[in-house]
Write a structure and sequence with these properties.
The complex is a heterotrimer of chains A (249), B (302) and C (311).
Chain A (H helix, E strand, L loop, with lengths): L6 H11 L2 H24 L7 H28 L3 H4 L3 H4 L5 H31 L1 H4 L1 H28 L3 H19 L8 H12 L13 H25 L7
Chain B lengths: L23 H17 L5 H29 L7 H24 L1 H4 L3 H5 L5 H34 L3 H8 L3 H23 L5 H25 L13 H12 L9 E2 L2 E2 L10 H22 L6
Antiparallel strand pairs in B: 1-2
Helix pairs in contact in B: 1-3, 1-6, 2-3, 2-6, 3-6, 3-8, 3-9, 3-10, 6-7, 6-8, 8-9, 8-10, 8-11, 10-11
Chain C lengths: L5 E10 L2 E11 L2 E6 L6 H8 L7 E6 L2 E2 L10 E4 L11 H11 L5 H11 L15 H13 L5 E5 L7 H16 L3 E6 L11 E6 L2 E7 H9 L3 E7 L2 H9 L4 E6 L10 E5 L2 H15 L3 E6 L4 H10 L1
Parallel strand pairs in C: 3-8, 3-9, 6-7, 7-8
Antiparallel strand pairs in C: 1-2, 1-4, 4-5, 9-10, 11-13, 11-14, 12-13
Helix pairs in contact in C: 2-3, 2-4, 3-4, 7-8
The chains are: A mainly alpha (249), B mainly alpha (302), C alpha/beta (311).
Amino acid sequence: MSGILDSTVAWLTARQLFVRRRLVAAAIVSLVPAIIALIFRLTHAAGADSSEFVTELYRDIVLGTLLPLVAVVFGSASFGGEIEDGTIVYLLVKPLPRWRVVLSKYAVSTAATIAVMVPAIVLPWLVMGVGAVGAQRMLGFSAAIVIGAAIYSALFVMLGLTTKRGLVAGLLYVVVVEFVLSRQVQGVRSLSVREFMLTIAGTVAPQAIGITPDNVSLATVWVMGGLALVASLAASIRWLRKFELAERL
Amino acid sequence: MPDARAAGQIFDIGYQHYDGPRLGRGHGIWTLITFSFRSAFGEGRGARGRIIPLVVIALVYLPVVIQIVIAAVSGQPDQISYARQLEFVGLFIALFTAAQAPEVIVTDRQFGVLPLYMSRSIRSTDYAIAKLLSFVGALLVLTLGPELALFLGKILLSATPWTAFRGEWKSLGPILGGTVLAALYVATIGLALASLAARRAYASAAVIAFFILMPALAGISRHLLPGDAARYATLGSPFQVMTGFAQWLFDVQAGPVRVFRGRRALAEVISPVPGYLCLYVMLGTCVAGIALLAFRFRSNEE
Amino acid sequence: MTGPRIELQNASRWYGNVVAVNAVTCELRAGITGLLGPNGAGKSTVLHLMAGLLAPSDGQVLVDGASAAGHPDMYRTLGLVPERESVHPFLTGYEFVRMNARLQRLADPDASARAAIAMVDMAAAQDRVVSTYSKGMRQRIKIAGAIVHRPTILLLDEPFNGMDPRQRLHMIGLLRTMAAEGCVVLISSHILEELDDLATNVLVMVSGRLAASGHFREIRRLMTDRPHTFTLRSSDDRRLAAALIAEPSVFGVDLTNGGPATSGGLSIRTSDRGAFARALPRRARDAGIRVLELRPTDESLESVFSYLVDR
């Protein structure tokens, strides 16, 4: 770990990400699915069929909506403002290869996303009653979160670094690819991180999760997902290495 | 000898005192409205800032062109549907708002220019009203414009334009009212959310997040509402609300299901909820949004 | 070849059509060197070239014999104090300096950080958040961050911006100590007087070119002993011109023609401003001429530097 990541850069990134406002918003995001589950419990008799509800909660709310939003916020904030206000220079004039800076920030951004989103899976599992949901389903979706967070973070760190409006670019990607295209156009599904996540979840818990038959294959997930991850990180590293401190404004 | 008197004098070097007529508050408000209207379409931001507005305009008028062409070719102008256009436009004005509402209401705050506005004759509530009116106007270009184009198409393509006009002019009422409400609805949501942010990027993100989250939450609440009440969950999604409203406004009935390449055409999905409820939701949201804006831009003067 | 060294060999840097640094050749050794020039002359660019943050478009930039850019290990012995005043606002001063120490792989980052903070006299404010600092305090904490690893080369970009005289004095003492220990210290500034009594050598840059280099006193003498020009209007220019040319401090008078009847004014070149200022009223009074307007025409720093370039 010490060879690839730098603990000081990680510490700095953590300080940048965890400002009070964001922590509060993150806590809300973690709790909202549990609250929804709670409402379900309160409005339905015990033993009511919750299977479809749980799948929709996990698939549409947590994976499909909350995870991309959280990943965008953390990913684009990982280099947040440092390039703009010039404080990146303090990381660059150090005996520290720039690729380690990128990877350290990426790691913290991913870890933060996972830390916020896993409770969003586990808490509803507890609220609904562990039997009702099933440990397998919970684990399946948790694994999906981890993979999805890793890929999304790489993408959004890159967008935050290379584009001026990284936050918006990331969100537009989510809206266009995940929401619009992949539901209309079949081929785009192999580009959708959401589909990757569903496949992972389905692999871990095949019986419990109703996955549509034309989902992407596991092989596609590893290949395309891995490609997206590696390409994004490589692009970020390349951008930072070529970055030259501009003459003062 | 150099003139010794020059040492103690203050020279009037050009800052002239102005005693002439001043145009006053009303003119200031009007100027702000026109200026904000233009910045909603990306003016002043260079070529890059115009991309999204122009793309959205093109996409919104595209179905209009298609409908008119089909009607002209098939000779059936009554096939032109106002409702379908209004339903369709919902997604695009949301996108436009997410991109441009921050330009209208956040740039002044982000660049510290607000004090300059507030030290003129316009008051802070005037500022908020002007911004709202200008953005509603911008959205009207996207909502009312296409509908009027369709209206004209229906009339002019008919075999007997004058008779067609006499039959159609009653539709102008719903067209006007519907598009204005739709524009106001999305504008208040966008501006109210955007006014909470200090940077344009965060404002855009907030608006996008809203339009992603609300449909998702509406979907999941289907499970939370008991029995038949589940269909009211669609009132949570702004897009469903606008669809229901459009269908109610133009009295769209469930027609024969048209299948086009294996998918059901959009307009045939009739809103499960009575349309007037959608109207109330939209009105309520407008009121809430305006209240938020009024609160944020409330006057601090005695 | 002992001791730290920076060399620029015909180094140039351009951005598209704009040449920021134009064929600069110089060598820096232990001691304090000043980098002087008007705003936009390319001083920051030169500093960034030396700091390896930019690659030269042409020529070479060598630090201790090795190319500056793309060489992270070089930073173990090099410190940079950038000009922009921002430091991560949410960190305390101590955390900032300690972060720099840790990134430098120091054995005891806490102790090194405290020592550096003490050296810049910021011990009292070190636990306050940087966003509460004044400009001068921020400059000092940046310097602490740059010296925490005891570099042998220190590059400072307009370090005295925003410092009050007492802070400046303290900083000068610190820099002198470092230079005496054998460090290469480069301070950039656009105010000549700031480097007075501090820099032994000075490099003067104008419009990307090296206009002058050498001993500080010599350069300053050249710059202040340059001829001065004045424009003057009076009630009788021609007679005043005749009277003034007799004055020893004046070595050139031109009648600038405003027309046959009107007095167009005089342009006067003098080598001694003070003597001229005393002589003019006397001569004018003796000749019974009224002086209407007197203006120096070349007080700007640019003209000073341009004069150097023309020489």
